[in-house]
UniProtKB/TrEMBL annotation:
Protein name as catalogued: M48 family metallopeptidase
Domain YgjP-like metallopeptidase: 28-77, 88-191
Superkingdom, natural source: Bacteria
Organism: Coprococcus ammoniilyticus
Transmembrane regions: none
Amino acid sequence: MNMLTEIILNDKVTNENIRVQVIRSGRKSLGLEVRPDGTVLARIPARLSDRELKVFIEKQQDWILKKVDQVKKRADARTKIKVPSVDALSDAEIQKIKDKIADRVKYYCAVMQVTVGRITIRNQKTRWGSCSSAGNVNFNYQLYYLPDELLDYVIVHELAHRRHMNHSKEFWSEVARYCPDYRARRKQLKEYQLAN
């Protein structure tokens, strides 16, 4: 018997269709989640019938539409960075970006007394930076176009992972040692949206 894997809701105000992805599992309760990217998930017990699922979604429709609207407004409020695409950059410009970010990484490695493996500059779709357990660090080339204090915050954040590969209390204490106003910078960084 085929069970529903998604339900389409229509927002009568915007006349947009909203897909609700259905995830069935051994759970006993019904749950709804609207992710930051606007994806709507309905987590339900495997045995729930399609009819019961539809009744549940209909009852929650107003809540779903309200949440999706809030997520969209939050995304619209974020500042899209004015950055050229990687393809539009000359070799000299790419080198300039790599040099600036690598120089800041080396500076903070010395200050924080940590070492890294490879420093890679990429066009990541969802991240500003990352640090592997092997000690290699990746940074998004778009950081070059942000205010310097945000570039420095991302670098300090990733280098702090060289001591703590998690987001524990100790990790944030390490970040605070070299970036005392990290909370303000992290909040400011969230106002920027990666340009894809």
